[in-house]
Amino acid sequence: MNEPAAILQMLGLPGRQPRSLAVVGLSDDPTRPSHSVSAYMQRAGYRIFPVNPSISEALGEPAFASLTELVSKRGRPDVVNVFRLPKAIPAIVDEMIALDLKNLWVQLGIMNHEAALRAESAGISVVMDRCILIEHSRLAH
Asked: For the segment 74-122, what is each residue's pLDDT rounded down to a tens digit?
């Protein structure tokens, strides 16, 4: 977990094309961290797929109720970026395993070590308790 090579690979660095991010828990409220972080990543060239059953769109992109719906309609995202409470992480990992998604990024301040271990044992790369915006701004410039 949190290996430097995994962070670079998930960010598509160095010199690789920006990646697609399924943002689980993305809010359509511009004052929420999920929105501002995702807006930064979108400006940096990443494709954002909002995953939140409570909204219809965010950042100009249609929202999906689940990762399963996203994959069925748009294909597999490169990274699943999570802005949800720690108790939600196990179900997200289960869905990722079922969908054969390979990269899980859990935002700063959110930790569920049991779910992370389960994800890694299923072949999913995990970055946890790190901010994707901070890591991108630190490594891409």
From this structure: 999 999 999 999 999 999 999 999 999 999 999 999 999 999 999 999 9
**Alpha helices (runs of H) in the chain, residue ranges in sequence order:** 4-11, 33-43, 67-74, 89-99, 113-121, 132-140
Task: Please tell me the distance from the alpha carbon of residue 103 to that of residue 55, in angstroms, as a whole number.
Answer: 24
Give the separation between CA 19 and CA 6, rounded to whole angstroms. Answer: 14
SS3 86: helix
In the predicted model, is pLDDT for residue 52 greater than 70? yes
Split into its structural domains, the chain has a count of 1
Instruction: Return the structure tokens found at 86.
Output: 């720690």
According to DSSP, the β-strands at 57-58 and 61-62 are antiparallel
The CATH number of residue 75's host domain is: 3.40.50.720
What residue numbers bound the domain in which 20 lies? 4-140
Mean pLDDT for all residues in the chain: 95
| Contacts with 128 (C-beta within 8 Å, 6 or more apart), sequence order | 1, 2, 104, 105, 106, 110, 111, 112, 113, 116
